[in-house]
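Box 3.1 A note on notation
Throughout this textbook, protein chains are presented in two layers. The first layer is the amino acid sequence; the second is a token string describing backbone geometry. Keep the layers aligned when reading.
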Amino acid sequence: MRTVKPFLCVSKHWAPLRWLSKPRNCSNAARASPAEKKKVVSDSFRRQVASGPRLQDFIKSPVTLAVNCEHTDEHYLSEDLGLLGDGRKVYFETYGCQMNVNDTEIAWSILQKKGYQRAADLKQADVVLLVTCSIREKAEQTIWNRLQQLTAMKKKRLKTNSPMKIGILGCMAERLKTELLEREKLVDVLAGPDAYRDLPRLLAAAAGGQQASNVLLSLEETYADIMPVQHASQGRSAFVSIMRGCDNMCSYCIVPFTRGRERSRPVSSILEEVQMLSDQGVKEVTLLGQNVNSYRDTSEVQFCSSERTKLSRGFSTVYRAKQGGLRFSDLLDLVSRIDPDMRIRFTSPHPKDFPDEVLQLIAERQNVCKQIHLPAQSGSNQVLKAMRRGYTREAYLDLVDNIKQIIPDVSLSSDFISGFCGETDDDHQQTLSLIREVGFNVGFLFAYSMRKKTHAFHRLQDNVAPQVKQRRLEECISVFREEAERVNSAVVGSTQLVLVEGESKRSAEDLCGRTDGNMKVIFPKEDVAVQACVSNTAPIRGGDYVLVKILSAGSQSLRGRALSHSSLRSTATPSCDGYK
């Protein structure tokens, strides 16, 4: 990773050189002869230089952060200055997507190795780090409100012997660095998504009373050599980051500006992490990336070739076709072979990166979940063009047909944005018709929120009234729920393999888990057969696979009755009574 040369921080007592300015008032110096003037200037220059930095100040070990040293006589943060945590306690709060969950695990791994401890309670914390999201205005406002609360707590702690420092990590740190550090002065540390390795140094600067910031984006950083400290519930599932950044440049999206360009983690480090998780008994791994199925590892010479990246038919990109590299289908193949009894999921993909070889691999591998997230964003060609999505409604529907043909039992989920720039009522109706035509069972729907730096911010007008956005969003949600209930009802009467997550949030008498299609299933907590068609029973615990007969369905969950314990390797539905 590229390091940043240190900024020169000059002490206040070293005044700027002023002898080049013409004197405004008459003085003896102004009336002096040229020779006398030269002597005055020479003497003044020597005094200024004598009080300035020495040569040694310019050859200290370099640092990779800039600190605000306006009120200090220290010119640099020394390399050996308190980079160890010395048992200081860090409390994390994570907001936004699963990438931020993974970022939290990476940041904690780095700090743990430096001797920091993790606080289970905010009141115990010496450092509070918020891992933030900038995807929508509402997400940022949540952070602003939280910062006000934490600042009030911080002021109270100033009166005690346990002062508290506040840090912002992730996308919001990169996007709002000026507002956070200079205008609001609410935080002590800022670290962008590519600067987590700098956290020990940034926190050391903050402990010395300075604000510290590193929000530079990298073209190489993937944290491939850092093993995240997983905090999944009892180790049943885990997230593995395989790539960072995005090159798609959709007109509404801030991600390329907060997360940077696409770069893929070397396949060897991914396989090592997945193997480690398998050894720990993890039953489900989700591969993560902003554009996860555009994965392309070029870290080794043998991966390089002249073969161009294949796209879904009818899709295009704003960038030139990429060549060579180990592709997503290759990675998915290798990951799925590590543990046949471990489920593999991935998110979040782009529809353009589903060539047939990816779909065929999903269909063939029993442990690759038959669930695909397929963000549509809109059902209108006019809006899709303004969004710079790289496809038409017709191309999207052709892809859906192709997916269903290759993977007949597939479950589909999607994203939709209501009220994008220039969206008309007719555009909105086309989106509703697309939702009805495809039949998704999970959806993520939001009203459009314009973000600075994006193409839409510079080129388009946010001209749909807020109340219209909200009305259209509510209509989309209503239609989505109707269709989801219809799709889910089709599995009533079937037997589904469910990975148990634990107790239901609504009742301690029920358990909950998820099907291969990522649908939540609620069922009574009771002992069941240790395997199909046998009489011996055993209790069900989190992390178990069980066969559940589905008895009813709603738009957001299924209800059923557990029949027996099972595994991914023996998921063929038994023919004995009660399992049909």
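Confidence is low (pLDDT under 50) at residues 1-31, 59-81. The longest strand covers residues 495-503.
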